[in-house]
Amino acid sequence: MWPLTKDKPKHLLPVAGRPMLDFILAKLEPLAAVDHIYISTNAAFERHFRQYLDTVGFKNVSLFIEDSHREEEKLGSVGALDNLVRKCGVNDELLVFGGDNIFSFDTEDFVKFFRQKKANIVALFDLKSTEKARFYGVVKIDPNDRVVDFQEKPAEPKSTLVSTACYAFSRDGVGNLHRYLEEGNEPDKMGHYIEWLYRNDGVYGYVFEGFWFDIGSFESYHEAERHFSQSQ
């Protein structure tokens, strides 16, 4: 996304006139199940996020700042989440949403599914293309929606169902973050944690239809822009 992200974090880039992060916060803030929302970022973009929160009306939202300014100092997504959990004293169930995801599913329904399964949940989207699936975490689920196979960016995907950056973690799922890291596992990508978690704790897949934009390239960014501009 360079040079758009030279002076602004990707999550605050505009999509149809709204900062990307607006789309997620608008879905999370009204949830009765949510006590507090943390926006986790690094020190390099702290000022941008503070200015953003000063201009929007979202409540019960605060910043959690990872003390890193350069790429080589970053903890990685799993490491950063574990850092937040330990420093903020989080010992409850936890919803985690990647800030560069825009999705169509109802978050109330997502939480309802989480309550029904009483286990860790990952939102899944069918790309209907094995070629596209190669760039994501590819998932297989059984008839009860339990994850039975997970491959991170496989050369030959076994399905077209992929993991999105939308999760609900049980208390055990939250606690297992530190165990996963202590075992020396990859701290950078949440997909590796899900791959470990489905074998050690259990994960279920919440399959949704509609749309999902994983904004990691100019192509996906422009697709999201066209979609929301046309729907206005």
Strand pairing plus helix content: what structural class?
A: alpha+beta
| Main sheet attributes: strand count, strand direction, barrel closure | 4 strands, mixed
Number of strands: 12
Full CATH superfamily name: Spore Coat Polysaccharide Biosynthesis Protein SpsA, Chain A
Rg over CA atoms, rounded to whole Å, is: 17 Å
Name the CATH architecture: Alpha-Beta Complex
Distance between the termini: 25 Å
Assign the CATH class.
Answer: Alpha Beta
The strand order across the widest sheet is: 5-10-7-11
* Helix-strand topology string: EEHEHEHEEHEHEEEHHEEH
> Would you tell me which CATH topology applies?
Spore Coat Polysaccharide Biosynthesis Protein SpsA, Chain A
Helix content: 25-40%
Total tally of structural domains: 1
Low-confidence stretches: none
Strand content: 25-35%
Number of helices: 8
What global shape is seen? Answer: globular
Q: Could you characterize the architecture of this molecule?
A:
- The protein has 232 residues and is α+β, with helices and mostly antiparallel strands.
- The chain has a single domain, classed as Alpha-Beta Complex (Spore Coat Polysaccharide Biosynthesis Protein SpsA, Chain A).
- 36% of the residues lie in helices and 25% in strands.
- The chain is built from eight helices and twelve strands.
- The strands form five sheets. A four-stranded mixed sheet has the order 5-10-7-11. A two-stranded antiparallel ribbon has the order 1-2. Strands 3-4 form a two-stranded parallel sheet.
- Helix 3 packs across helix 6.
- 31% of the residues are buried.
- The model has no long low-confidence stretch (mean pLDDT 90).
